[in-house]
Amino acid sequence: MPIKDHMETLLLEVGPDETLFIASRLLDARRVGSALVVEDGKLAGILTERDVVRAVAADFDLESTPVSDYMSRVLTTVAPGEDMTVAAKIMAGQRIRHLPVLEGEKLVGVISIRDIVRWSMGELEYDEGKHIRQLVDMV
Asked: Into how many domains does the chain fold?
């Protein structure tokens, strides 16, 4: 099953100069766990809930600290035509919960761990309606 059939396309995008305060308010309002950081029309990084927690724990002033101070710049991405098992393996192997989807250099979506769970529920096999066998080689 291709990633494009499961990815979120209504993306939360912020600029690298946006404050952590504004970005965290947007994360909360949209009820999502990541904001894609876009600069000059290109993906520059990702800011996740974990990044905001790190900033709070370090006692940084969220109202004056830019997203660029805490965003992840080294990103793993996938193409929309890749299979969902590829996304699941990457996310499990790298212990990440959000995976940007790029078509060439264009940002077209994001896959979250929530999307993986929803997809995997359809991939579970039932044994006489009593037991669920997980697809172990998926992860």
From this structure: 1
